[in-house]
Design goal:
Blueprint lengths: L1 H15 L3 H14 L2 H18 L3 H14 L4 H17 L2 H9 L8 H17 L3 H14 L3 H18 L2 H11 L5 H14 L3 H14 L6 H16 L3 E6 L6 H22 L5 E6 L4 H12 L4 E5 L4 H14 L3 E3 L14 E3 L4 H15 L4 E7 L2 H16 L3 E8 L7 H12 L6 E4 L3 H13 L6 E4 L16 H5 L10 E4 L8 H14 L5 H18 L5 H9 L4 E3 L2 E5 L5 E3 L2 E6 L2 E5 L4
Parallel strand pairs: 1-2, 1-3, 3-4, 4-5, 6-7, 6-8, 8-9, 9-10
Antiparallel strand pairs: 10-14, 11-12, 12-13, 14-15
Helix pairs in contact: 1-2, 3-4, 3-5, 4-5, 5-6, 5-7, 6-7, 7-8, 8-9, 9-11, 10-11, 11-12, 11-13, 12-13, 14-22, 14-23, 15-16, 17-18
Length: 599
């Protein structure tokens, strides 16, 4: 306050002596002392930060341009550029992120800002697959980092990138280039760990010796040595399959069927091999993505665990992708069927019939085998209903057919008079179709079909989806409740639906599974239990071939083609791609019967 008073006194004195230029200079000093200019930069920074937080990148860039025009070499401007760059990086727009980070000059810029600039450039390089370049950017960032905590965080991040993103050739290049300096230590550790996961004990020990030679005081030698020792013990022990399923909570019923399917598979395989082929460790996910990730992280610490069965929900499986990548552990879900699973990780797989695939197969069958050309579709207005409708409609049109009318329903209706009324009005107006596709749950379909007949819409081909199988949600596993809910079973005669399991099959493996499951749990298994059985079997077959490492297991699973499972033919591609062929079930004489379909 005394400084401001002195400045004001000086201004008064200079004005009184008519020294105007000096008075102006003193006034500018006064403004500076009040931090008016500093407040302007804060206003612009805060406006830009708010735009970024709101996801409004267009406004953020406009503010950046205004900021640069007003205060072109301002430290807060550079900080805002890096904030926007970081947001673009998070959104996957690597080009924009890189451009903005590069705009921050080196000369005249504070060290903590430069550290962030080069860290961001390293992140961009890492995310785009240039690990060697990323290493160089992180080294430069470390040179500008002023705190020990910042240095430790950056070293840890570099090691994490090496372990999760790098290939052996990337790590070897870093080791050769940096010799006995960072980040060669992190690269050596990552390469040694990679060798351990591949089961190359000898190779990992050589890398450990190289690490000790180049970094005698390095803190990673003990950890790598422990990993190698544990891997040697694991190679001599029975492999373990970790199982992440909901054993309590909202999805406990689903989890019970899956757990029982896995246990049935273990008993059958152990009896056939005459020994314990694999141990099981169950973790209760409670249906929670967060608890699924925690379970995966815990299981991955045990080197004996070579694969994970589950999680069951698509959201939980998606949440586990980063942990699967980090630990390089294959994760196979028997039930997660959302589209967004495809492409999220090299270590995420699934064995289930996807809704769109199911619908495409039905459309092919209807057009090519039943010679139907025009269709009506009544579908549930939810994720699964829309996927089934879209897949069926697109494939019908692709095959030269036509979907004449599509009607949705919420699934909460007590009856479907409104929807069937729309269908009847279409017919009364001269509309025609050869078949009706009803991809809904059995309890909803059991209300619709009699109402269709009541309105004169009968003696027409009915087509359905796996929802017609009541065993998926029935406590006793009975798949035929649809037949019990419709008094006039002749209304169902000739109807065909798709499913991922047929429990009355004459197939030897299916019969063996059914018998063992019923003996152990006193109920019929459903499709989820069968898919869990197959997921265990896929892993067990790899173990029988001598697979003992996560890396080998992942390769074995991703190369699976036309595997004959009890839940159908299974093809598993990389990055969560799933190719599964459904069963076609026809209702004849009041019974479900399997029909052989080759399209």
């Amino acid at each position: 306050m005394r400084d401001v008073s002195n400045i004001l006194f000086s201004m008064k004195k200079t004005f009184s002596h008519n020294i105007f230029l000096r008075a102006v200079l003193v006034f500018l000093i006064f403004l500076s002392s009040c931090q008016i200019f500093a407040s302007r930069e804060s206003v612009l920074y805060n406006q830009g930060a708010n735009a970024v937080n709101a996801g409004d990148f267009e406004t953020a860039e406009k503010i950046l341009r205004s900021f640069e025009a007003e205060l072109p070499r301002n430290q807060r401007l550079y900080e805002l550029k890096l904030l926007v760059s970081s947001a673009y990086l998070e959104k996957g727009n690597f080009e924009k992120a890189q451009i903005l980070a590069r705009q921050v000059p080196i000369q005249g810029t504070e060290n903590h800002i430069l550290a962030k600039k080069f860290e961001l450039l390293g992140d961009v390089s890492a995310m785009t697959g240039n690990i060697f370049k990323a290493a160089g950017e992180y080294v430069t960032a470390l040179e500008y980092t002023e705190t020990s905590a910042g240095e430790s965080e950056l070293r840890g991040k570099t090691g994490k990138i090496f372990q999760e993103k790098a290939k052996p050739v990337d790590l070897e290049r870093v080791i050769d280039n940096y010799g006995g300096k960072f980040p060669a230590d992190e690269a050596l550790f990552a390469l040694g760990k990679m060798r351990v996961l591949k089961g190359d004990i000898g190779g990992s020990r050589k890398i450990l010796e190289k690490y000790k030679e180049k970094f005698p005081k390095g803190d990673k030698a003990e950890e790598l040595s422990k990993l190698i020792d544990e891997a040697e013990k694991s190679a001599l022990s029975v492999p373990v399959i970790g199982c992440i399923i909901p054993l309590s909570g909202e999805y406990e019923g689903l989890g019970e069927y899956v757990r029982n399917g896995i246990l049935t598979a273990q008993v059958i395989y152990n009896e056939k091999s005459g020994k314990s082929l694999a141990e099981l460790i169950f973790k209760d996910s409670e249906g929670s993505p967060q608890k699924s990730v925690a379970a995966l992280d815990e299981l991955a610490k045990d080197n004996r665990v070579i694969a994970i069965l589950g999680p069951l929900r698509s959201q939980s499986l998606k949440a586990c992708a980063p942990s699967a990548d980090k630990n390089r552990i294959p994760v196979i879900s028997p039930t997660a069927d959302a589209d967004y699973i495809t492409g999220i990780s090299d270590y995420i797989f699934r064995n289930c019939l996807l809704p769109e695939q199911e619908a495409i197969h039905m459309a092919d069958y209807a057009v090519k085998k039943l010679n139907k050309r025009s269709f009506a579709v009544l579908y549930t207005d939810d994720y699964y209903g829309r996927k089934l409708d879209q897949g069926f409609s697109r494939e019908v049109e692709k095959q030269g057919g036509e979907v004449k009318i599509r009607i949705s329903y919420s699934g909460k209706e007590g009856d479907y008079a409104e929807q069937i009324g729309q269908l009847k009005n279409y017919i009364n107006g001269g509309g025609k179709f050869d078949a009706i596709y009803l991809p809904g749950d059995f309890d909803k379909v059991s209300l619709m079909i009699p109402q269709l007949a009541f309105n004169g819409i009968k003696e027409i081909q009915l087509l359905g989806s796996s929802g017609w199988d009541s065993g998926r949600i029935s406590s006793d596993g009975n798949p035929e409740k649809l037949l019990d809910l419709i008094d006039e079973t002749d209304l169902l005669e000739g109807a065909v639906f798709t499913d991922s399991f047929y429990p009355w099959s004459n197939d030897k493996e299916v019969k063996e599974f059914i018998e063992q499951y019923k003996d152990m749990f006193s109920v019929m298994p459903n499709a989820y239990a069968a898919q869990a059985f197959d997921a265990f079997s896929i892993i067990a077959e790899q173990v029988k071939k001598g697979t003992r490492t996560r890396e080998e297991m992942g390769k074995g699973i991703s190369g699976l083609k036309k595997y004959k499972g009890i839940s159908g033919s299974i093809t598993i591609g990389d990055k969560g791609k799933s190719g599964k062929e459904p069963f076609f079930i026809r209702i004849k004489n009041g019974k479900f019967e399997l029909i052989n379909v080759e399209i």
